[in-house]
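=== Given protein ===
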Amino acid sequence: MQIIFEDKAILVINKPSGVLSIADGYDKTAPYLRSILEPEYGRLWIVHRLDKETSGVMILAKSASSHRVLNQQFSEHLIEKQYAALAFGHCPDRFQNASSLRINGDRRHRTVVDLQKGKAALTEFALVEYFDSGFSLISAFPKTGFSHQIRAHLLHLGYPILGDHLYCTPDSECLSNNFKIGRVALHAYSVTFLHPETQKKTTFSADIPPDFSSWIDTFNKKRASV
């Protein structure tokens, strides 16, 4: 668990893929962030979550007052987040999805686009690089905070994330398996917020992890061999 920053108000970490943000409701013995970190760093408050398979930057509060301030920023959509993702298909240079979302919207308990019953949601995207193998490295900027928002919005646009077996198409799943993408290829790259005590605008980032980089290297090697 990489510690990016620590002071008396916050703890900023680079969460590895495979670690739960909160306790598992079914498996009480499964490790999660607080159970891992609190023995060393004391009482912590979860401010926001990342899916188990998603890696990257997370903020934890070290006091109830910092927790309240940061929660308020999240509720008012003042937190700026940037993600890196490997998406199926050739994405446009700039695009977005403003389709309304509904949590737990189908039998698979997925977040789904629902223009009638859903709530307003917005994710902006930018193409970083397209690979001839049929994948795009993109940046995602969620402007609202729904669970699985990026994954649901990309699937709806026809660009599901590689390694995602919940929000996928048969073609994206097949290609993910061919390239041995071992988890959802989504990484929380940076977060920008007002420090809860100093009120200074602060940005923290986490480099792309080795597994993510290895997939990109595989695409580049395949491109070079053609």
About this structure: The longest helix spans residues 210-225. Helices lie at 33-41, 64-75, 149-157, 170-178, 210-225. The chain is about 25% helix and 30% strand. The chain has one domain: 2-225.
